[in-house]
């Protein structure tokens, strides 16, 4: 954690032809809290991404071998890892049941739908699941790591943030594909 202190304001005089003018200059000092390490600061800004996360996502995107992938952050290892992979035959209800009610997760869901022109299509959804009852520290870590994690997964088409199961039900998915 960075603490920025304003040390002091120095008044300097600057003379001009028509008189005196004062200019205030603020000096800043940046220090680290002595009890906290740099690792704590890195944990807040983003986690490493395990190679298996990218591999499973590429399998879902290219080969359609998975219906969904649930990711979790391992705080001790300081990285995002795959927690669960859903087979293509599993339903949306199976996906929703795989998200814990009191813990944050990232998830990828391959949503199949039929367009108004009667064409079968698919969209890849990224879901940031942060329930209201989750711990504040967990919410902060997931929120600060989300953008870096999404950049690692090239091919996400739609993003959802959900704090309640109703914010990511099938009707929400259907409305976001149109």
UniProtKB/TrEMBL annotation:
Gene3D superfamilies: Severin (3.40.20.10). Residues 44-178 form the ADF-H domain. Pfam families: Cofilin_ADF. It comes from the Eukaryota. SMART domains: ADF (SM00102). One of its GO terms (biological process) is actin filament depolymerization. GO terms for molecular function: actin binding. SUPFAM superfamilies: Actin depolymerizing proteins. InterPro entries: ADF-H, ADF-H/Gelsolin-like_dom_sf, ADF/Cofilin. GO terms for cellular component: actin cytoskeleton. Keywords: Actin-binding. Belongs to the actin-binding proteins ADF family. This is ADF-H domain-containing protein. It comes from Brassica oleracea.
